[in-house]
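Handout, section 3.2

Students often ask what a structure token actually looks like in practice. Rather than define it abstractly, here is a full record for Chromosomal replication initiator protein DnaA. The first block is the sequence as you would receive it.
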Amino acid sequence: MKVDDFAGGSAVSAMATTAKGEGERSMTGKKGRDSTMIEDQEALDLAADWADISQGLKKDLGPQLHAQWIKPIQLGSFCKETGTLDLFLPTEFSANWVADRFADRLSLAWKIARSEVRQVRITVHPRRRSMPELRVGGEAPIAPRAPVHAAPAMLDSALSGLDPSLTFAEFVSGSANVLAVNAAQRMAAVETPQFSPLYLKGSTGQGKTHLLHAIGHAFAANKPGARIFYCSAERFMIEFVQAMRSNEMIEFKARLRGFDMLLVDDIQFIIGKASTQEEFLHTIDALMSAGKRLVVAADRAPQALDGVEQRLLSRLSMGLVADIQPADIELRRKILEHRLGRFGNTQVPADVIEFLARTINRNVRELVGGLNKLIAYAQLTGQPVSLQLAEEQLTDILSANRRRITIDEIQRTVCQFYRVDRTEMASKRRARAVVRPRQVAMYLAKVLTPRSYPEIGRKFGGRDHSTVIHAVRLIEELRTRDADMDGDVRTLLRQLED
């Protein structure tokens, strides 16, 4: 029964005849409908709880692990007598994997959401999914050759395709990633690249996955009908093991080697899996021999992949290893300014962009996430985006990225820059030559440290917090209309953050 049908069902019951026999049947029917309504409402409540739990796990585990293991989970039935909730996954392998690694976390999350849940049971879905039609490169569906019971989940990734938002047009390049971007564009061009495979190396959140998807999109546009497959190395390993267990290795190899381009992410996760490494090695050989294109990405260089067979290391190293360096301050500014284009008329002051670009420096993913969170909060609450709002709402991200710069270090650097005595930071003198450096130091203390206004005031001769607030706002305003002041602050920021 649909939720929309509930009101209609009640109305029909209310119109029942008053005759005894008819009344009894009506009451029985109403109880049945009421029971169904209760069951439906309980199902809706369970689904709402699962949506909240799933979102929490996405934040904890990250989008990649969540999409791979948590998102495929389907809600089963809940037994009130035993307090057992069933969670289903499409394959025995995925059910065992989730049960081994996430059972405790899922159980705790459900017990917090619903006190009546005493046990979470993770099993394979009683009706396994049939194999979906496989679409590659815009071609017509290819009928599955393997038996329905095999249902390799690897085909789901091909069916869902590449992320449409991760294109070259949306990738911001700079000196830190120019080699990788140029190599990626060559790999996606119509002409056969001079190197193969392409190995993208970079730390977490620097754009490796974005480039992999961008290569796939560009290659599909340049070669209509091309067969392109993207997966993580971990996914490759899982599908390999599943195919081996279900005696479908011939089909697995044939389909994998039938692609024109293979894009493999997080190759470091293939470490230590001897049989999977062997198959991956054979796949690389087959693709390269056939003139196909291979792009892999990892968080370390091939030589730093511990536990990888020497022959595989040799194959991975024989093409081009393109390093993606951490984004420098200029690239971080460009990324933020590019991202602002998605938010229409939302106004973000220049000092906020500068603050985010300087403070969130660990990886690009955190940088973009911080901007998204800040603007979303401002739009939902109706507040203007400001430096103060950024500090209040991005506390966790900022504290994780900030180098531990002290107020003493700031005062020392400012005094050296303006050539004033260190004692002036706490003195009561109000000469302009002393007041302005002191105000700059207060501003930098607020921007570069997690200290509150009262704490900063105490470090400047026991001044009131309102004095610090005035100084911070004054320097913010001066930076927008005084190029010399803005230049001084930029220079001091570079000195303090180097």
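Discussion prompt for tutorial groups: The chain is about 55% helix and 10% strand. How would you have guessed this from the sequence alone?
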